[in-house]
TrEMBL record:
Keywords, comma-separated and alphabetical: Folate biosynthesis, Lyase, Pyridoxal phosphate
Name of the protein in its database record: Aminodeoxychorismate lyase
Protein's organism: Pseudomonas asuensis
Cofactor(s) for this UniProt protein: pyridoxal 5'-phosphate
Reaction(s) catalysed (UniProt annotation): 4-amino-4-deoxychorismate = 4-aminobenzoate + pyruvate + H(+)
CDD domains: ADCL_like (cd01559)
Subunit structure: Homodimer.
Gene: pabC
Catalytic activity, EC: 4.1.3.38
Gene3D superfamilies named in the record: 3.30.470.10, D-amino Acid Aminotransferase, subunit A, domain 2
Cross-referenced Pfam families: Aminotran_4
Length: 272
């Protein structure tokens, strides 16, 4: 399927002077598509809209929504990656007074993950790359993903399905491409994302369901020592759902009942 720019099949592509290319001035959303329907569309657009406000990128939300619906109807099954850039700019960091954002839609096949990741759990790689603290960008899925690129380059092969990323103060934050939850005394705990990290749509969905089920939750800083003392650990992502974590460094966890419960909640939402 062809990629789109501003609602049309790509012909010339983006200018080399686009601020998304020059400075990473933009955002993206990775949207799963099933039977022509985009999953978690409202959540994706809500995060995108908040990010555009923070980065001073004007967003025609209904135009974007309509383009996504048209694109995913053609794609049918796979992943639609939406990229919003701040548009053309001259040399220098100052943004143009009247930016003209660019909208890109890119198609990929349905991702294939090993079935044992969900069934038997995963090993989590201890990444040495640290996430820089920047509250103004925290939570956003902005275009600068170099920290994740470096972290993912730390391991090869299939022994590890994900890596754990911390901030400079040894607080657990997230995976390279996933959010993290742990269970302590039947309380569902996920790291706060006030200074770094990406606020994932599956993370938000699971927190909403925990509230609906009257399961106690905490969103807070998690020192590495608290993480390794957890009763259960799992990762989540809007593409694969929930993966139990069984091993991290010298630590091992069983696949507990809350992990399995939230795995079923995620799988139902993803039509697995």
């Amino acid at each position: 399927m062809e990629d789109w720019v501003n609602g049309q099949p790509v012909e010339a592509g983006l200018s080399c002077r686009d601020r998304g290319l020059a400075y990473g001035h933009g955002l993206f959303e990775t949207i799963g598509v099933h039977n022509g329907q985009p999953r978690f569309l409202d959540d994706h657009l809500q995060r995108l809209s908040a990010g555009c406000r923070r980065l001073a990128i004007p967003l025609e939300l209904e135009t974007v929504r309509q383009e996504i619906l048209e694109y995913t109807a053609l794609l049918r099954n796979g992943v639609a990656k939406l990229i919003i850039t701040a548009g053309l700019g001259e040399r220098g960091y100052a943004a143009p007074q009247h930016p003209l954002p660019q909208r890109l839609l890119l198609a990929s096949p349905v991702p294939r993950y090993a079935s044992q990741n969900a069934d038997q759990g995963i090993r989590l790689f201890p990444c040495q790359t640290r996430l820089a603290c920047q509250p103004l960008l925290a939570g956003l899925k902005h275009l600068n993903r170099l920290e994740q690129v470096l972290a993912r380059g730390e391991w090869k092969g299939l022994d590890y399905a994900e890596g754990l990323m911390c901030d400079p103060f040894e607080h657990v934050v997230e995976g390279v491409f996933s959010n993290l939850f742990m269970v302590v005394n039947n309380t569902l705990i996920t790291p706060s994302l006030d200074t770094c990290g990406v606020a994932g749509v599956m993370r938000a969905y699971l927190l909403r369901n925990a509230e609906r089920l009257n399961i106690k939750t905490e969103v807070r800083q998690i020192p590495l020592s608290d993480f390794t003392a957890a009763d259960e650990v799992f990762m989540c992502n809007s593409q694969y759902g929930v993966w139990p974590v069984c091993t991290y460094a010298d630590h091992e966890w069983p696949i507990g009942p809350l992990t399995r419960q939230f795995q079923q909640i995620a799988a139902k939402a993803l039509d697995f």
